[in-house]
Amino acid sequence: MISVIIPNYNGAKFLREAIDSALDQQGVELEVIVVDDGSTDDSRAILESYGDRIRPIFQHNQGASAARNAGLAIARGEYVKFLDGDDYLLPNALHQQVLQAIELEQNEDKRCVVYGDARLIDADGLIISHNYFPVSKCRGKSSLDEIISQWILTTVPLHRTDLLREVSGFDERMPAAQDYDLSMRLYFAGVRFFYVGELCLVYRHHQSLSRISTMHHSAPSFSRRYAGYKRHLSLASDHFNRRLPSAVKTAFAHVFWEAGRFALRCDQVVIGKRYFSTAASLVSYNYISGGRGYRLICRLLGPVFTETLSATVRRITRPSNSDV
Fold it and tell me: What is the pTM of this model?
């Protein structure tokens, strides 16, 4: 059985599409668990309309990680598929992924995760990209630097329930990047990730910064995220007996750098500089993440000025026209 776990908070607009995409899956036994995280819109009425076809949980607002963990706690399936309330599964995606997982477990071992790809759309349903991962991405076992640099979305893997429970699910202390954190903790618990390539869902990408909770803009939030990234770095260092491969160090440097850029966009300059400093300490040169123009200006004028310039360029031109 596969347990599809859908966290929801005020997502009535897209919720039915997500649930129906799970219920319409063919060739697999499944249960659909929807965890409503304190919604104030019409979500409850939508969930109640499904009767016993789904397993709803209603809780006070605690965040997406807590909602997913609540679903994981009651999951009866051998496998878990996380699905956000504004995304939807493609037909036969679960049947395809469970067959891939079974084959992999027979040929490798059971401490593995299969993950596919996603089509990206915007809030209006228009296609942003036909693939989330680079088309050049190789199928098969993913290296640690790939997992670090090519963020595995929460919704593209098919997880083994026992492995998720072994690492206690999502870390509810992480204010953001919970999917990345989960992948890191699974990897260092001996779980290996295998990319199978096929599209499994449609991911709705909300580009506006204003959609992100202001709680995630605060200095304490960025500090908790920084502490989480440092934990991952420490785990990697221990894993490699304190001799991190250059590809892994570069991948970590880019993660810290991108987080620093986001901190600056949220007016958190002090913690942003801390992220940048950590990135620069990992590798001697290739620690700046961004386009060629951005990297050049960064080296000349520093990341704070460059991010201010980059924000100005984004306001007056389309992102695709900017090399900064």
Answer: 0.89
